[in-house]
Amino acid sequence: MSTPINEAITPVVIKAVEDDITAIDTDAMVNSANTAMILGGSRSVASRINGLTEGRLESILADDEVYPKPV
């Protein structure tokens, strides 16, 4: 069963941002990924976040006990 977005979160706010999204104060970021949890190319959002975390993001996602693959 799914809940329409307008019922799940009110009010719905969608904002287009042309900026460095890693510098935005937010509770969460969602990024598309593959079932192996392999980060994208050097210009991807995930790679930028991984660089800012000095590789911790990729290291965390590589832990098969915490994140069994495929997802």
Automatic annotation (TrEMBL):
InterPro entries: Macro_dom-like (IPR043472). This is Macro domain-containing protein. It comes from marine metagenome. The lineage of its organism: unclassified sequences, metagenomes, ecological metagenomes.
